[in-house]
Amino acid sequence: MNILVINCGSSSLKYQLIDMDGENVLAKGLVERIGIEGSIIKHDTTGKERVTIEEPMDDHKRALELVLQVIVDKDHGAINSMEEIGAVGHRVVHGGEEFASSVLITDEVMGALERCIELAPLHNPPNIMGIEACKELMPNTPMVGVFDTAFHQSIPAENYIYPLPYEFYEKYKIRKYGFHGTSHKYVANRAAEILGRDIKDLNIVTCHLGNGSSVTAVQGGKSIDTSMGFTPLEGLAMGTRSGDIDPAIIPFIMDKEGMNFEEVNNVLNKKSGVLGISGVSSDFRDLEVAASEGNERAQLALDVFCNRVTKYIAAYAAQMCRIDALVFTAGIGENSGFIREKVCEGLECLNIIIDKELNDIRGEERILSKNLGGPTILVIPTNEELMIARDTLSLV
């Protein structure tokens, strides 16, 4: 079966067409600037040259129309007709407490997604727009929603309840939800495959490190704790997000700077993290270059980031009593040997020892530790699209 995977942002759309018989990518692409002047599709069909389409796209429906056209195009496409698409898998950021697993999309599910908008006002609306556009263009094709939050619904209450008046949880569902769940699930399962062991017997810490970053404790194949919380702002210091801070800082800044809530919220989400500390960039590649040239604030930003990752790994080692595998993934985790080495430097007390020669790689799947009796350290490039396609296949 061929499955089309859709990931809609507010003005972008990523897609992959995957043949699930061999889990081979037939085509993939990126649509940018939907609803903005200069709309463009960059499309790649396996074995053919890239196609670029520059055409106005006022909304997600028009973008998807053009995507489907290029997928079946006789010169540039990957299949002959739309009938060869057996199902569509949609990435949905937030499923709240309503979804602990992927689901076939029904009218009832759409209603639940609408109710979750207040929990993810920036992400869920474009996800919903993508689903509605696909339903209109492909009314007879089954569709599945795969939620970033679903993998973390196994987290026990003592790890997801905040120490606030309990009525806030009862009334507003204020609790830890966690994000990047599809990525954490994929790399944890892949680590078990690489180690040749049943995931039910393993304690794994997965580190999804990118501009947005999170660390998850995976015990027996289930998430039992994760660093992101009610929103993706909690946890690690990130590209532009503050991560964990004393909450009393917020009213203090509002008072001293004369800011309203929207302004301070913008600072915490878009002007903090390593960008805020360094004053250089939110891109870790720029920070590594600046630090190597003697920029002390860039070095401090990297130190803060790595220190936070190390602390979360150590905390999850304590929760699970042991770690069998430590996995690095996503843009930074897959490509920065410097970050991986610095994170592991603080974990030698747990017998987490990285091999510097093995660590000299970018974007490759590899074991980075020698067999010294400690946890196995791995780099595993994430593949959220394949995880979405697998869930979709299992449901349809």
Automatic annotation (TrEMBL):
Entry coiled-coil feature ranges: none
Reactions catalysed according to its record: acetate + ATP = acetyl phosphate + ADP
Sequence positions that bind ATP: K14, H208, L209, G210, N211, G212, D283, F284, R285, G331, I332, G333, E334, N335
Domain of life: Bacteria
Record-listed E.C. numbers: 2.7.2.1
Annotated keywords: ATP-binding, Cytoplasm, Kinase, Magnesium, Metal-binding, Nucleotide-binding, Transferase
A GO CC term attached to the entry: cytoplasm
Site (Transition state stabilizer): H180, R241
Subcellular location: Cytoplasm
Active site: D148 (proton donor/acceptor)
Cofactor note: Mg(2+). Can also accept Mn(2+).
Transmembrane helix listed as a keyword: no
Described function: Catalyzes the formation of acetyl phosphate from acetate and ATP. Can also catalyze the reverse reaction.
Subunit structure, as described in the record: Homodimer.
UniProt-recorded name of the protein: Acetate kinase
